Amino acid sequence: MATQVLMPALSPTMEEGTLAKWLVKEGEAVKSGQILAEIETDKATMEFEAVDEGVVGKILVAEGTAGVKVNTPIMVLVEEGETVSDAPKPAVVEAVAQAEKPIAASARAKKAS
Questions:
Q1: Would you say domain 3-88 falls under CATH 2.40.50.100?
Q2: pLDDT, tens digit (0-9, with 9 covering 90-100), for 51-105
Q3: What are the boundaries of each domain within the chain?
Q4: 3-state class of 14 per DSSP?
């Protein structure tokens, strides 16, 4: 079954961070304990390691993305033979997409005025 990997809280006060660098690629097998990415907080750059095993099905947040909120889906791990289309759509990503639609429509309306 597909597993969403969430932006971790690397300190007790961390609310968001920068996904500085991915150390894995889509399609790559991942083992528990393997370093997945480097994440920058306001104080340090830290390594983030896998808790689960699987295959990187989809990277949801690009390298260098700043302001990624804790608990936001950043990647989907799938089982061997499973595809990303089998994975549930990340609820947070869907909610953000829905929230942005009215803003985009409103912005277009203001430009047209």
A1: yes
A2: 999 999 999 999 999 999 999 999 999 988 776 665 555 554 444 444 434 444 4
A3: 3-88
A4: coil
